[in-house]
Amino acid sequence: MSDDRLTADTPKAASSETAASPESNERPRRGVKSYVLRAGRMTAAQTRGLEEVWPRLGLRVADGRQDLEALFGRRAPCVVEIGFGMGASLIEQAERHPETDFIGVEVHAPGVGKLLDEADKRGLTNLRVYREDALEVLSQCLPEASLEGVQLFFPDPWPKKKHHKRRIVQPAFVALVRSRLRPGGWLHMATDWEAYAEHMAEVLSEAPGLRNTAPEGHYVPRPAFRPLTKFETRGEKLGHGVWDLIYERVEG
After folding, report:
1. Distance between CA atoms of residues 3 and 177, nearest Å
2. What does the pLDDT look like over 144-168, one tens digit per residue?
3. DSSP calls for 163-214
4. Cα–Cα distance for residue pair 135/113, rounded to 1 Å
5. Closest C-alpha among 174, 181, 75, 64 to residue 130
6. Average pLDDT, stretch 118-124?
7. Residue 36 near residue 168 (C-beta atoms within 8 A)
8. Positions of E strands within the chain
9. Which of 3, 120, 156, 244 is catalytic?
10. At what angle do helices 88-96 and 109-121 cross, to 10 degrees?
């Protein structure tokens, strides 16, 4: 989620809970979604992004399995960010790391439009965007063992206990992500809800083939490559914590 975060009840991570087998080409079964589509006003820039830039940088699940080297016209590490919100963090990373290719996944139309408009204005060629469910993108479009990393920053914590099943971080999601990471690739999550951080750590501790990179405990300091968002800065001034978790794919 970007610095333009909405309320805790406005989820941004694009995914439904139930996935197909990570090694399967079947479409994921529709389960409980971790997001709710809400109407939002579109600015002129956001509309321009969706109408003028989308044909160049936009991707669809219907396009099928991607050849990442052909998609970007080169062989380079590829990082996927799920639920990029309004896109400020992803834009900054793509601009700061031209040697890496990025794919953003988001269901919120204003956020997708804003990111596309900004990417075009900055002349970024290492960024593509899906406006789709993240589980469908991972299972249907991204090859196995193809990704350098997957990022999940500030997903909706669904704080009420009855809504915990809507949280995107579930065993099936983690298994699917692992199958798309290359050996040595990483899953990086960040949240400002301590209870959700604990949930993430619990799920990941049970996941085979992923190693916690924290030298001790569950969490790592915010790495320099994750941009500090305006939302996060405001939270720090109010004494709010942020928890980063980075897990690496290992064999076995």
Report:
1. 25
2. 999 999 999 999 997 888 868 989 9
3. GGGG-S--HHHHHHHHHHEEEEEEEEEEES-HHHHHHHHHHHHT-TTEEE--
4. 21
5. 64
6. 98
7. no
8. 58-59, 78-82, 101-105, 127-130, 147-153, 181-191, 210-212, 243-249
9. 156
10. 30
| Burial label, 208 (beta-carbon count in 10 A; 0-12, 13-18, 19+) | exposed
Give CA–CA dist 96/124, Å, rounded: 10
Confidence of residue 142 (pLDDT cuts 50, 70, 90): very high
In this model, does residue 8 exceed pLDDT 70?
no
Which tokens belong to 167? 């949280």
The DSSP output letter for 58 is E
List Cβ neighbours of 152 (8 Å cut-off, separation of 6 or more).
13, 81, 82, 83, 168, 169, 187, 188, 189, 190
Is 177:150 a contact under the CB 8 Å cutoff? yes
Q: What is the mean pLDDT of residues 211-237?
A: 87
Write down the pLDDT at residue 12: 45
156 counts as catalytic: yes
- Residue with the bigger pLDDT between 15 and 130: it is 130
User: Terminal CA-to-CA distance of the chain, rounded, Å?
Assistant: 32
Domains of the chain in start order, with CATH, are 44-249 (3.40.50.150)
Averaged pLDDT score across all residues of the chain:
87
CA-CA-CA-CA torsion sign (231, 235, 240, 244): positive
